[in-house]
Design a protein that fits this description.
Layout (H helix, E strand, L loop, with lengths): L4 H7 L8 E5 L3 H7 L4 H22 L3 E8 L7 H17 L10 E5 L7 H14 L6 E8 L1 H17 L10 H7 L10 E4 L18 E4 L9 H13 L8
Parallel strand pairs: 1-2, 1-5, 2-4, 3-4, 5-6
Helix pairs in contact: 1-8, 2-3, 3-4, 4-5, 6-7
This protein binds farnesyl diphosphate (FPP).
The site of farnesyl diphosphate has 18 residues, from α2, α3 and α4.
Length: 246
C-alpha cells in the first residue's frame, strides 16, 4: 500500500484496533552492519524508532504496547554490548520524562529486577512513579525478561499460597496464573510483530500470546516506520480470529 498517512489511517478500522501490541524489535545489529557501523549504532537507531512507534500507537488509541528490549538470554552477548544496552535503557528512561511521559504514556518495566544494577532499578522506580497517573498507552518495557522465568516465578508464588493453605491445588486456574505474570491485570496481546525476518517468539510473552496474531516482516527494526505499523494493523484486521472456535 502506498497511501500517505492520512489515507492509510482512513483504511484502518479504528473500531477494530488491537488493544495490545507486542513487538520483538529485531535486526539492529544487521542494520548497523549494512552501514559499516558498530552494533551500538543499530541499537541507538532502534531506540529512536521505538519512540516514533510508541507515539503513533498512543495517538491511534492503542492501549498497551510491550516491547522486548533485553531478554534473559541477552546477558550472553559481549560485555561491551550489554553495557551499551543498559546505558541506552537508562538514558531512554531518563529522557522519557521529557518525551513519552509528556505524551501521557505510562511506562513500566517487566522482567526480573534483581539482576539489574541499582542505578537502573532506581530509575525504573522513578519513571514508573513519574508516569503512573498518565492515562495514555501503557508501555511495558521487557527488560531482563523471559517467559519461562516469568512462568517459574508465577508457579512459585502459587505454590507458596498453596503451601500456606490460602488456596487448594484444585483452586488453581488459568486466570490465577495470568494474574501472577508481570503483565497481570492487562489484556493479552492481540498482535505480535517481529521484525528482521526471524520467525520465532524467542521466549517472549509465550503464555500471553496463546491467541495472538503473529506478524513477521523482513524490515529491520531501525527501519520500521509508521507506515509499516499501519500495514501490520491492516494485516491484523484482515485475519479471522476464531480463538479455537469455528
Ligand atoms: C535485537 O537486535 C535487539 C535487541 C537485543 C535490543 C533491542 C533494543 C532496542 C531496540 C533499543 C533500546 C530499547 C530501549 C527500550 C531503549 P539484534 O541486536 O539481535 O540484531 P541482529 O539480530 O541484527 O544482530
Amino acid at each position: 500500500m502506498f497511501f500517505g498517512r492520512k489515507k492509510r489511517l482512513e483504511t484502518i478500522d479504528m473500531n477494530n484496533l488491537p488493544v495490545h501490541i507486542g513487538v520483538i524489535m529485531d535486526g539492529n545489529g544487521r542494520w548497523a552492519k549494512k552501514r559499516g557501523l558498530p552494533r551500538s549504532a543499530g541499537h541507538q537507531a532502534g531506540a529512536d524508532t521505538l519512540k516514533k512507534i510508541v507515539t503513533e500507537c498512543n495517538n491511534m488509541g492503542i492501549k498497551y504496547i510491550t516491547v522486548y528490549a533485553f531478554s534473559t538470554e541477552n546477558w550472553k552477548r559481549p560485555k561491551e554490548e550489554v553495557n551499551f544496552l543498559m546505558n541506552l535503557l537508562l538514558s531512554y528512561l531518563r529522557d522519557s520524562e521529557k518525551t513519552l511521559a509528556k505524551e501521557n504514556v505510562v511506562i513500566r518495566a517487566i522482567g526480573g529486577r534483581e539482576e539489574l544494577s541499582e542505578e537502573i532499578r532506581a530509575q525504573i522506580k522513578k519513571t514508573e512513579e513519574f508516569t503512573k497517573n498518565n492515562t495514555g498507552i501503557v508501555m511495558n518495557i521487557a527488560l531482563n525478561y523471559g517467559s519461562r522465568e516469568e512462568l517459574v516465578r508465577a508457579a512459585k508464588k502459587i505454590a507458596e499460597r498453596t503451601k500456606c493453605g490460602e488456596i487448594q491445588v484444585d483452586d488453581i486456574t488459568e486466570d490465577m496464573i495470568s494474574a501472577e505474570l508481570y503483565t497481570g491485570g492487562q489484556l493479552d496481546p492481540d498482535l505480535i510483530i517481529r521484525t528482521s525476518n526471524e520467525l520465532r517468539l524467542s521466549n517472549f510473552l509465550m503464555w500471553q500470546s496463546a491467541y495472538s496474531e503473529l506478524y513477521f516482516t523482513k524490515t529491520l527494526w531501525p527501519d520500521f516506520s509508521v507506515r509499516d505499523l499501519h500495514n501490520a494493523i491492516l494485516e491484523y484486521q484482515s485475519r479471522n480470529r476464531r480463538y479455537g472456535g469455528v
